[in-house]
């Protein structure tokens, strides 16, 4: 059941970087289809997708079902060590190839890859299970239950069949997704992003080097097709083959998946989110405090060069315009310093450049620090700008009171970085009521408490297929 996806093959495919597939332990090479990356428009070559190999039959018991969770964790920990090994040719080749298609510079890509491997730590993985499941034994066995009437049953977190639609902005999500798919013992098909059709296969090939016949390896496939290609998606996105789609990405990607949903085929969505900062007037009390708050705010803006969902885009600052402008100047200083160190200087997109240039001419309504050259930019306004700040761009919104900032919170607000820290408790209920999902110290949007909810849910609990075996009232 083979099919063609993407664009037409190139006549000179050897000049195009190759992106092989991984099919449950088998690496599939080929340059049958020429694809194009989303951000840079760079071409890369893939094989055709052999759909008969990526669709697991329902009659097949998931390979990981009866593998103890402790053994899965041990294998993941060993994988993490191998990902960081200097002689891991798969990861070295992956980084080289990814630097041709990804918008992030090499240093950020390399750091992200190294940092992501830290997730494959025994303490981290065990904490994830303990926080996601009231009784993690349900992953390994049928757990006996009884209610107050004496009725007995058994419950199991059964291995699901998952399609993962991966994001293109963060290479590190690949490591986490592999680990989570293994922990819930799923049969996994990863749809790789055009910005990074390499990392997932490099991870899986590393696993196969450790043990090509391990049940984790036999539970994983990774391929690429152009999102929205109905010749592929109308075949794969069916409850006959998979239980759930775990989808990351922008609005278009999520909307594309939604149209395939129906009875028996669910969506677990890590959909588009925007993170913000809330800075109280205490930050403006003196120059030292102002500089500290601006530096912390810049830390949150510049996570993955502002390519991550947790990267702050809007900073609501409480105080008079003169003081807020002092904050803007220091914020620009710290953003520009990080931008210079990153080696990433991409001019803003044309529409955004034109909007900012117009604002610069309206100095009675806006303040602008920096230029549109991708080396750091701060825009001060009385309301959030109507474009999406990205590429090292911060929109400082001046407010008389942080109470005024709460009205801009909605269900798309992911992380709120807050200063001063002792006022956080006064706002967390109102932020949650507005739809926000996380409040942290300003400057700490990136790290998170291990095992905490992500996007207002416990993902692993959502991934599994919960099965109950009712055993009656227990009478003989």
TrEMBL record:
It catalyses: a long-chain fatty aldehyde + NADP(+) + CoA = a long-chain fatty acyl-CoA + NADPH + H(+). Pfam families: LuxC (PF05893). It is an enzyme of class 1 (oxidoreductase). Its EC number is 1.2.1.50. It comes from Novosphingobium album. Belongs to the LuxC family. This is Acyl-CoA reductase. Keywords: NADP, Oxidoreductase.
């Amino acid at each position: 059941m083979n099919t063609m996806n993407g664009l037409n093959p190139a006549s000179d495919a050897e000049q195009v970087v190759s992106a092989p597939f991984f099919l449950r332990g088998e690496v599939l090479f080929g340059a049958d289809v020429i694809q194009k990356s989303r951000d840079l428009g760079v071409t890369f070559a893939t094989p055709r997708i052999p759909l008969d190999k990526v669709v697991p039959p329902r009659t097949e018991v998931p390979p990981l079902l009866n593998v103890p969770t402790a053994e899965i964790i041990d294998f993941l920990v060993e994988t993490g060590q191998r990902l960081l090994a200097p002689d891991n040719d798969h990861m070295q080749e992956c980084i080289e190839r990814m630097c041709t298609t990804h918008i992030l510079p090499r240093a950020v890509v390399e750091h992200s890859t190294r940092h992501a491997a830290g997730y494959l730590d025994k303490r981290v993985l065990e904490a994830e299970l303990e926080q996601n499941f009231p009784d993690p034994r349900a992953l390994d066995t049928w757990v006996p239950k009884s209610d107050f009437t004496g009725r007995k049953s058994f419950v199991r977190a059964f291995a699901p069949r998952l399609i993962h639609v991966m994001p293109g902005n963060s290479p590190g999500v690949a490591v986490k997704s592999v680990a989570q798919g293994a922990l819930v013992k799923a049969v996994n098909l990863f749809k790789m992003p055009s910005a990074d059709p390499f990392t997932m296969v490099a991870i899986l090939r590393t696993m196969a080097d450790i043990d090509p016949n391990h049940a984790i390896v036999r539970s994983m496939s990774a391929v690429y097709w152009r999102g929205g290609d109905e010749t592929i998606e109308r075949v794969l996105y069916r409850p006959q083959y998979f239980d759930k789609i775990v989808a990351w990405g922008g609005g278009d990607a999520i909307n594309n998946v939604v149209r395939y949903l129906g009875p028996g085929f669910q969506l677990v969505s890590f959909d588009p989110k925007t993170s913000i900062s809330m800075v109280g007037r205490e930050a403006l009390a003196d120059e030292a405090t102002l500089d500290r708050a601006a530096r912390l705010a810049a830390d949150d803006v510049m996570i993955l060069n502002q390519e991550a969902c947790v990267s702050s885009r809007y900073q609501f600052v409480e105080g008079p315009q003169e003081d807020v402008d002092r904050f803007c100047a220091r914020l620009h200083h710290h953003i520009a310093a990080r931008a210079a160190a990153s080696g990433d200087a991409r001019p803003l997109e044309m529409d955004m450049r034109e909007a900012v240039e117009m604002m610069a001419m309206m100095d009675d309504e806006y303040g602008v620090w920096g230029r549109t050259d991708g080396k750091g930019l701060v825009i001060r306004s009385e309301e959030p700008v109507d474009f999406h700040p990205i590429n090292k761009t911060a929109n400082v919104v001046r407010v008389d009171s942080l109470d005024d900032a709460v009205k801009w919170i909605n269900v798309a607000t992911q992380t709120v970085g807050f200063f001063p820290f002792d006022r956080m408790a006064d706002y967390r209920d109102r932020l949650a009521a507005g739809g926000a999902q996380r409040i942290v110290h300003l400057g700490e949007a990136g790290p998170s408490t291990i095992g905490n909810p992500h996007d207002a849910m416990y993902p692993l609990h959502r991934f599994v297929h919960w099965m109950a075996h009712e055993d009656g009232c227990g009478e003989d």
